[in-house]
Amino acid sequence: MKHLLITGVHSYIGNAVEAYLEQWNKREGQGRYQVDKISLRDGFPKPDGESKWDALLHVAGIAHADISGVSEETKALYYRVNRDLAVETAKWARQAGIPLFIYLSSVIVYGESGKACRNVHITADRKPAPTSFYGDSKYQGELGLQELETEDFHVAILRLPMVYGKGSKGNFPMLVKLAERLPFFPNIENRRSMIYVENLAEFIRLLTESGEGGIFFPQNEEYVSTAELVKEIGTARGKKIRLVRALNPFVRLACVLPGKAGGMAGKAFGSLTIDLGIDQGPEGYRKYSFSESIRKSV
């Protein structure tokens, strides 16, 4: 049996991993995985001899917020949660004898793709260069965690692209709404790395089995344009959406607008890809194709 502790009780990814492992147990007819969840607002459990947990999945964090025009107090909160709390939790996990700490980071540590619809391509030799306090708080969390690694305590850092699935937050539900309402959509040929939440859950399951540490870049097996994504959502909903190049100039104009409008357009139509040649850790985690994942998500 493998015993996983999830720190954070209201996380979309944490809840999805718990549900996925429950379904895995039922499908395989064995109780291979046991999951416990705790809220860090209640403090840390007191270590009691040898740890019963094989891995800790740390999902407590702040993301998917409008980070423009925020106060210094709000910025400080991002660092307290995404950096300080993660490091404190890892110190407790190491003291408690938990051999693997899994930290959910983000490709945001490489900067934003949302400015002027620019293209970001992440290769193995590209260094993190966060351009926002959110990205910097995640990267500072990574650095603090790496300092805690020992031969007996491994840290797995997952630099995630957009995570989507049923009930997800962020850009995906916005695109679902657009697919429901629009008969036409701009045919912008951008490219995005994404990962379906159940593919991510399988990746985490395999990490729990291997106990492997390192920096990982789980993603679906193909890049997808925003136009392809919206069209696939429409197909899953039984609706035909025409992709129209005549709308592309309006998108390019929106991308250079100042403020929130330009940022939203850039996030939707910029390119952000992770090189498919980067070592991505455990193999065989992509259980669902892009089309299958969209059908399950909408």
UniProtKB/TrEMBL annotation:
Domain of life: Bacteria
InterPro entries tied to this protein: Epimerase_deHydtase (IPR001509), Lipid_A_modif_metabolic_enz (IPR050177), NAD(P)-bd_dom_sf (IPR036291)
Domain NAD-dependent epimerase/dehydratase: from-to ranges: 5-210
Pfam families, per the entry: Epimerase
Gene3D superfamilies, sorted: NAD(P)-binding Rossmann-like Domain (3.40.50.720)
Designated name of the protein: NAD-dependent epimerase/dehydratase family protein
The species this protein was found in: Candidatus Acetatifactor stercoripullorum
